[in-house]
# Entry
Amino acid sequence: MSPPTLIDAPTSTTTAPVALSYELFPPRSDAAAVTLWNTIRELECTNPDYVSVTYGAGGSNHAKALDLVDRLQLETTLRPLAHLTCVGGTPEELNAVVNEILDRGVRGILALRGDRPRDGALPANGLQYAQDLIELIRRIELRRSAQFAAGKVAIGVAAYPMKHPESPSEGHDVEVLLAKQRSGADFAITQVFFEPEQYSSLVHRARRAGVTIPIIPGIMPLTSLRRILKLSELSGVAPSAALLDRIRSAGDDVAGARRIGVEATVGLAEAALAAGAPGLHLYTFNEHESALEVLSRLNLPRPSRPSLAAHHRAR
Ligand code: FAD
# Structure
């Protein structure tokens, strides 16, 4: 018998750590910036894989979003994933923004269309879909590949456990996700969802259709009834009456409502992980308390990275 070769060597059986990421949005006031930076410092202690920074549809908060991305890179150990929307933008404008993001050293972009303007009108010469933006980013990446030492820009996209409000069907949404993968998407993050089966059903349908990229569940801490209702209105995803009743049952007991909300979120995240979720993306709303409470209950297997504080102490 010949000795085993590298080709015969068994592949590693250790499972990958669960990816952890957070969504932040650029602050709209000085007071909001103080809260955000407190949140950033608290979240930094959990060693997330990246934090995503939202971007207004039509580039409404362009400067603030890029400023936050810059500060995350310069002042923290966090790796930013910059959201970018293409709605209303011409190829020339978006070409400039993508280059600007890459010039700042960002190597991860969440490519989105963004919500249509209220009157529904989109400029005829603008990019129509997230898919167009992915293709634009890949063309720019190719032009600049020597600068990236032939490394890739990571492109994420949105995925929908419940039908996108403008889409004719959930089947169409999966076709769109597959098209985004074919155009160069590396991973997807889901819209909020409130029932565990909504995530597992999306993954099942997407895999059957040929989607192979990681589909990371976007989890919203269910600790604020007001926020749940607001987000449900914006995203078109309705929470179940049972969930709303559970949270309302706490009445004026704020701590009680929070306990119920954390419990429900932990259940949702555990179910997603049991369904094979490769990571969790927490919608923080720029507050750390709920996200950290949920995390402490989940006890995720995470790689231990050297901390900056330990590094400074050792020098
Ligand atoms: P697309 O994938 O382009 O889909 C938009 C619609 O067009 C869908 O109905 C789809 O079915 C249809 N469609 C797509 N491609 C085709 C095609 N080739 N042919 C026919 N129909 C097609 N919004 C912001 O403004 N800023 C943000 O920072 C932001 N972050 C987000 C982060 C996450 C994780 C998620 C899930 C959403 C986020 N959104 C954000 C919201 C998002 O912009 C909206 O949901 C938007 O309406 C659709 O964006 P999309 O990238 O999914 O668009």
In short: The chain has one domain: 19-309. The domain at 19-309 is CATH 3.20.20.220 (TIM Barrel). The chain has eleven helices and nine strands.
